Amino acid sequence: MAPPFDLADLPTGVAMPLSPMVARVLAPNPSPFTFTGTQTYVVGSSDVAVIDPGPDEADHLTALTAAIAGRPVVAIVCTHTHRDHSPAAQPLRAMTGAPVVGCAPLTLDDDGPRADAAFDAAYRPDRILADGERLAGEGWTLEAVATPGHTSNHLCFALVEEQALFTGDHVMGWSTSVISPPDGDMADYMRSMQRLLERQDIIYYPAHGEPIDNPQRLVRGMIGHRKQREGQILRFLERNGDSLIPDMVAEMYKGVDPRLHPAAGRSVLAHLIDLHQRGLVMTADDLWQMR
């Protein structure tokens, strides 16, 4: 899927100021699943936190070193442990001496459609943050907000002083998040989305895509989108009886880049598991039908 703008307008390896306390550095890993690439955020002024350090690539680590510019690093913070988010934590810790804090470690065998989304088996946090726990530097405070769904260990981080939320992959600025079982859970995701809807954040900084300056509107739209998708699945099963997921994807994702269909199938499976747990559908031999 081609971005709707020239990638040259979003240069990798450059610290782009977004607010008095926030700069982002775009990693050189664009793909159909990462959009223009993974965005690492440097938060603070006299001392800093680095959020989602990204892939372990030499050019990206050099760019992060330049963005840190010799300032003390209070913490290297990870929203979750997919390979486009956390692998640079270990070399950055070695370079800066900063602890790795944030989400819990999680490693699963992943035979899903996203090579970039396999779990980072080398992730070793020095401190795991529970929901509501905080870390702070001079003039800034980050608070962990538990948002399971995309992954079971996913955390967002609120920058208290700016009413901003770093949303990782839970809410992205260009697409909905893939929910891929067995770890991805649609019911958890919907509960996490409802939780964000009830917050008072005024801007989101996602790991992929542009900042979101009317976040409640976007979250309402994403909740509505998931409910519409659930309705599509139920109507498909009512019309067709016993059905396979690829047949559902072929109809429901017409016009979507075919490279994304396997990932779409994972989200359809997540919906079906949720519907099964609610007693609305049943399954046998990979076929799904209304209960």
Which short descriptors sum up this protein?
elongated, 291 residues, alpha/beta, Metallo-beta-lactamase, Chain A, five-stranded mixed sheet, seven-stranded mixed sheet, 28% helix, Arc Repressor Mutant, subunit A, 14 strands
Structure characterization notes:
There is one protein chain. By secondary structure, this protein is of the alpha/beta class. It has helices at residues 58-68, 89-96, 186-197, 215-240, 245-252, 261-277; strands at residues 15-19, 22-26, 39-44, 48-51, 73-78, 100-102, 127-128, 134-137, 140-146, 155-159, 164-168, 203-206, 281-284, 287-290. The chain has six helices and 14 strands. Helix 5 (245-252) packs across helix 6. The longest helix is centred in the last third of the chain and has 26 residues, at 215-240.
Main pleated sheet: 7 strands, mixed
Radius of gyration: 19 Å
> Might you state the CATH topology name of the largest domain?
Metallo-beta-lactamase, Chain A
What does the average pLDDT come to? Answer: 92
Number of DSSP strand runs:
14
Structural class: alpha/beta
Count structural domains.
2
Proportion in β-strands: 15-25%
CATH level 1 class label of the largest domain: Alpha Beta
**Which architecture of the largest domain would the CATH scheme give at its second level?**
4-Layer Sandwich
**CATH H-level name of the largest domain... which superfamily?**
Ribonuclease Z/Hydroxyacylglutathione hydrolase-like
Spatial arrangement of strands, main beta sheet: 1-2-3-4-5-6-7
The coarse overall form would be elongated
Q: Helicity range of the residues? A: 25-40%
The helix count comes to 6
Order of helical and strand elements: EEEEHEHEEEEEEHEHHHEE
Protein name: Metallo-beta-lactamase domain-containing protein
InterPro entries: LACTB2_WH, Metallo-B-lactamas, RibonucZ/Hydroxyglut_hydro, Sec-metab_biosynth-thioest, WH-like_DNA-bd_sf
Domain Metallo-beta-lactamase: 37-208
Organism: Sphingobium xenophagum
